Every structure is written in C-alpha cells, then in structure tokens.
Amino acid sequence: MLRRLYDWTLSLAAGPRAELALFLVAFAESSFFPLPPDVLSVPMTVARPERAYRYALLCGVASTLGGIAGYAIGALLYESLGLWIIQLYGYGDKMDAFRDAYAHYGAWIILLKGLTPIPYKLVTITSGFAGYDFLTFVGLSLISRTLRFLAVAWLLKRYGEPVREFVEKRLELAAVILLVVVVGGFVVVKYVV
C-alpha cells in the first residue's frame, strides 16, 4: 500500500495539476491544514529536480498568502476558529504570553519560526491575534517562508538522487522518518516552544 501511495505521489508530481495541488497545500498549511507542503514538494522535487526552485518559490508565495488568511483568522475570527485551531496544538492558555512576546520579539518570532518545520499557522494566527503590523508580517513571512523552501529545494537538488534511491530502496523507513519529523514538529510545539 505504501509503495502505491509513493508511486501515486510521484505520478502527481508529473501531472498537469501538481503545481496547483502544491500551491493549495502550502496555502492551507499556513492557516489551518495540519500537513506541511513538504509531503508534496519533496517527491515533486525528487521527480523533477530541474523545477526545485520553481516549487520552492511557489511554496513561499502560497505559504505567505495562506499566512495572510491565518492572520485574518487571528485578527477577525480568533474567538471562534482561531482559538479552536490554537487549542488543537495545546496553546489556548498561552496566548497572553504570546501577545507579550510579540510586542518585544515579533519580527524574530516570525523570521525564526518561519524557517522551521513548526506549524506556521501558529505564527500566522498569533500575529493577527496580537495585532502585529500587517505589512511587516507579510514581508517577514515572504522572506522566511521562501528561504525555508529554497533551502529544502537546494538540499534536494544537491542530494536528490541519493535521497530518491534511499526512499525507493527503504520506503517504509523513509515513511517512518517523515512521520517522526511531522509528529516531532507537533511535539516541539506542544512541549518545547
């Protein structure tokens, strides 16, 4: 079953709607969706390394636009949708501390967390909730998210063939590693950040 899913994802990478799917996942991840765009961008880049930077730029722009939606959720819908999303990650009781942190370190929070695999929706919703300057938020998001995806693209472009060979020979292990990274991001958010 895992092999079929892997083959399907690689076929999606070559399909006519691959970039649209990647755009939608990157957009949604920055506002409400739990999975990072890496689940699509990595196999797409491995399948078509000549498009690595194109995919990275697409993810950066889509993630920033999704971040604007997340900002709106925090600014306009916090009491309903925003609080529900934040509570899913175990941060419902920490929002006042976040607001205080944003008053002093907002730019650093956006830049640093935008570069990590920590769910970016926490940053976008919190930025809106905290009333962080919107244009500064958009600029910092565009910089940090694009740099994050460009770094992944560079690594895959440079080491993509060995990565592809590893994944194809040890698909189950690769799936476990990906799962650990995704779950690890959630654990870091819940217990460390």
Give a description of the structure.
The protein is an all-alpha fold and 193 residues long. It is 82% helix and 0% strand. The protein has nine helices and no strands. It has helices at residues 2-14, 18-29, 38-47, 52-76, 78-88, 95-114, 121-130, 134-169, 171-191. Helix 4 (52-76) packs across helix 8. It is elongated and about 50 Å long. This is YqaA family protein. The chain crosses the membrane at residues 52-78, 134-156, 171-192. It holds the Pfam family VTT_dom. Keywords: Membrane, Transmembrane, Transmembrane helix. Residues 60-153 form the VTT domain.
Radius of gyration, taken over Cα atoms and rounded to an integer in Å: 17 Å
Uncertain ranges: none
End-to-end gap = 35 Å
Strand and helix order: HHHHHHHHH
Overall average pLDDT:
81
> Helix- and strand-based class?
mainly alpha
Oligomer description: single chain
Percentage of β-strand residues: under 5%
The tally of beta strands, per DSSP, is 0
Helix segment tally: 9
Main sheet summary: none
> Which overall shape is indicated by the principal axes computed on the Cα atoms?
elongated
Which bin fits the share of residues in helices? over 70%
Task: Give a concise summary.
By secondary structure, this protein is mostly helical.
